[in-house]
Design a protein that fits this description.
Blueprint: H1 3-21, H2 25-31, H3 42-56, H4 58-63, H5 65-76, H6 83-86, H7 93-101, E1 111-112, H8 114-130, H9 143-148, E2 156-162, H10 167-176, H11 184-189, E3 198-206, E4 210-218
Parallel strand pairs: 1-3
Antiparallel strand pairs: 2-4, 3-4
Helix pairs in contact: 2-3, 3-10
Length: 229
């Protein structure tokens, strides 16, 4: 590894350490609702952790972990000729609109559910196998039909992210929602309208985008039998 690579890695570690210092141990513990969900990978557990940190203190997340994601993203795309088009700046309209929406605090948290995670995994695997990038299954089944079989008459939604396998990258990419005028992915993460509190998560390979992540959301009664305490 050359000296530049070592320095770059050191800077990433330092930046993450600075982010972590802005959050308390109790906040991390509170956000880690998936810590004991042994049916999830560590990155899948961390997707839920980062989504919960947003809901604990959205503005603090904006100035810590999101800023770290943006700095690292901009560093990575410097190698491309169209860097000026690709880079994320503080004048980016999605970045600015997010600041207005993310000033949330102590929202209800997301909890993992094994059945819902199984449904997320099945869809992510289907996307991989059939090289799809849609909420519909390869057989034409809509996401609401897939989920309603096990979660009937419940509010539900689904986020799908392509291109990332790292939990922080996935969450921040969905949170910014660049290029998605309706901001549907962002609104799911910041949801207060539908009272989403149960999530399924799966990260799988994808032939066209390298990786895909499926996150399913359902609103359930507060004390679900499948919930990890």
């Amino acid at each position: 590894m050359n000296r530049f690579a070592i320095c770059f890695l050191f800077l990433i570690v330092v930046n993450l350490a600075v982010c972590a210092q802005s959050w308390t141990d109790s906040e991390f513990k509170k956000a880690n609702t998936a810590g004991n969900a042994n049916y999830l990978t560590n990155e899948e557990k961390n997707i839920i952790l980062y989504m919960n940190l947003i809901r604990i203190d959205g503005e603090k997340f904006y100035y810590t972990f999101l800023q770290d994601y943006i700095d690292n993203y901009n560093e990575k795309v410097k190698k491309y000729r169209n860097y000026n088009d690709l880079k994320l700046t503080k004048t980016n309209s999605y970045y600015l609109s997010l600041l207005k929406q993310i000033k949330v605090k102590n929202l209800p948290l997301f909890y993992p559910d094994e059945q819902l995670a199984s449904l997320s995994r099945a869809h992510a695997t289907d996307l991989n196998k059939n090289n799809l990038d849609t909420h519909e299954s390869s057989n034409g089944t809509k996401f609401s039909q897939r989920l309603a079989k096990y979660f009937p008459n419940k509010p539900m939604s689904e986020n799908i992210d392509f291109g990332y396998s790292n939990s922080l990258d996935i969450v921040c990419h969905l949170l910014l929602d660049c290029g998605v005028p309706a901001l549907g992915h962002r609104l799911n993460l910041l949801d207060q309208k539908y009272k989403f509190n149960t999530v399924g998560v799966s990260i799988q390979r994808h032939p066209s985008y390298s990786w895909c992540a499926v996150i399913d959301f359902v609103a359930q009664p507060m004390f679900s039998a499948n919930r990890i305490p």
